[in-house]
Amino acid sequence: MAERQREREIVDPPTDTKTLRACLYCSLVRTLDQFEREGCLNCDSFLQLKRNKNRVSQCTSASFEGLISMLDPDTSWVGKWQKINGKSMAKGVYAVSVNGRLPRDILNDMPSDVASRYQPRTQS
Ligand SMILES: [Zn+2]
């Protein structure tokens, strides 16, 4: 039961939609506050958003469309569509498309294999 409870907390979409942002690398959607406190669950090792408001505003976007809950990253199409470092993605809510691009200097700072896998999430 404890496991079930935890899962609900993770997958419930955040309620304050005004502050929702999507990660420009993996399209994970969290509140601004969550990104600032915990960073991105998939990308923080190279985006380093945690406790860095400036990075959060550069690497996440408030402009995105479509929300998908990913409950089972191993079998979900979202997981196949966007693999991060070959590892399963975090359970959570993802945007279908995200407007914006990671800044060049941030891409340059990433390990090259991570940077080369970056695909902007814009729809057009
Ligand atoms: Zn991310």
Automatic annotation (TrEMBL):
Compartments, record wording: Nucleus
Domain Spt4/RpoE2 zinc finger: 20-99
GO BP: regulation of DNA-templated transcription; transcription elongation-coupled chromatin remodeling
InterPro entries: RPABC4/Spt4, Spt4, Spt4/RpoE2_Znf, Spt4_sf
UniProt entry tagged with the keyword Membrane: no
Keywords (A to Z) from UniProt: Nucleus, Transcription
One GO CC annotation: DSIF complex
GO molecular function: RNA polymerase II complex binding; zinc ion binding
Main location: nucleus
Claim: Methyltransferase is one of the keywords in the record: no
Family as reported in the entry's similarity comment: Belongs to the SPT4 family.
Protein name per UniProt: Spt4/RpoE2 zinc finger domain-containing protein
